[in-house]
């Protein structure tokens, strides 16, 4: 009976994971943090920002609901290999984390507010993952493209650490390159509302964020 119960619990945990093959390898960015950030050019007046905070299905849905955000792309960033894939990044050996590229109108929402969304939509003290997703590919990374952005992030991270009286897990790293994920990952939450992970992890995380920041939401959310 105990063995059967254990198998049932294990299966449930695997089901409610962004990827059941997730690894628990740790990863550090000591070398990366010394590199110069790459600044990306605006596209049709839209700035771009990059964040990693657990499963990109969840993070994409969160930022898509924010006013001033025009598009969010799921992908990979923060690693050391070229052309990462979902399968390779989820081994934990490429160094990449699941990340999002956020296209936003700076006349409607600021980079600072996007950082507030970032910290306010996750468990900021969870190391090497978010919720049921564990491993270096789910670690929290927040990317800066210039010194002004870095200072904004550092200030907000410090204030949050003082408020919670706890260390904040997110690593602050210079942006280098974003790799777009496979097509089936894009708008995953919208296209797969009945997926068990989406119903039990993504949507509750989205609703929790929306309740916390109603003033930042688009009118149709």
Description of the structure:
Keywords: Oxidoreductase, Signal. Its EC number is 1.8.4.11. GO terms for molecular function: L-methionine:thioredoxin-disulfide S-oxidoreductase activity; peptide-methionine (S)-S-oxide reductase activity. The active site is at 55. Has an important function as a repair enzyme for proteins that have been inactivated by oxidation. Catalyzes the reversible oxidation-reduction of methionine sulfoxide in proteins to methionine. This protein has 221 residues and is of the alpha+beta class. It has a single domain (2-216), classed as Peptide methionine sulphoxide reductase MsrA (Peptide Methionine Sulfoxide Reductase, Chain A). The chain is 34% helix and 18% strand. The protein has seven helices and eight strands; from the N terminus they run αβαβαβαβββαββαα. The protein has helices spanning 2-15, 56-64, 86-89, 111-120, 147-164, 188-191, 196-212, and strands at 47-53, 69-77, 97-104, 129-130, 133-134, 140-144, 171-174, 178-180. The chain has a six-stranded mixed beta sheet. A hairpin with a 2-residue loop joins strand 4 and strand 5 (133-134). Helix 2 packs across helix 7 (196-212) and helix 4 runs parallel beside helix 5. The longest helix is centred in the last third of the chain and has 18 residues, at 147-164.
């Amino acid at each position: 009976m105990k063995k059967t119960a254990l198998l049932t619990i294990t299966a449930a945990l695997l089901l409610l994971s962004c990827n059941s093959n997730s690894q628990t390898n740790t990863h550090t960015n000591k070398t990366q943090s010394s590199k110069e950030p790459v600044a990306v050019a605006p596209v049709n007046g839209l700035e771009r920002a990059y964040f990693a905070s657990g499963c990109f299905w969840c993070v994409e849905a969160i930022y898509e609901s924010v006013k001033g955000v025009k598009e969010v792309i799921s992908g990979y960033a923060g690693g050391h290999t070229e052309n990462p894939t979902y399968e390779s990044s989820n081994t934990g050996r490429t160094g990449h984390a699941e990340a999002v590229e956020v296209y936003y109108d700076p006349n409607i929402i600021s980079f600072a507010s996007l950082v507030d969304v970032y910290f306010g939509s996750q468990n900021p003290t969870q190391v090497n993952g978010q919720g049921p997703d564990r491993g270096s590919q789910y670690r929290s990374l927040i990317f800066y493209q210039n010194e002004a952005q870095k200072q904004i992030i550092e200030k907000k991270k410090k204030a949050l650490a003082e408020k919670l009286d706890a260390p904040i897990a997110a690593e602050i790293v210079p942006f280098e390159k974003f790799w777009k994920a496979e097509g089936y990952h894009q708008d995953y939450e919208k296209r797969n509302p009945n997926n068990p992970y989406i119903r039990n992890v993504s949507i509750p995380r989205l609703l929790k964020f929306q309740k916390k920041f109603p003033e930042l939401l688009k009118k149709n959310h």
